[in-house]
Amino acid sequence: KAGVTQTPRYLIKTRGQQVTLSCSPISGHRSVSWYQQTPGQGLQFLFEYFSETQRNKGNFPGRFSGRQFSNSRSEMNVSTLELGDSALYLCASSLAGETMSGELFFGEGSRLTVL
Amino acid sequence: GENVEQHPSTLSVQEGDSAVIKCTYSDSASNYFPWYKQELGKRPQLIIDIRSNVGEKKDQRIAVTLNKTAKHFSLHITETQPEDSAVYFCAAFLTGGGNKLTFGTGTQLKVEL
Question: Which of B99, B103, B105, B108 to mutate: most A Cβ within 10 Å?
Answer without folding.
Answer: B99
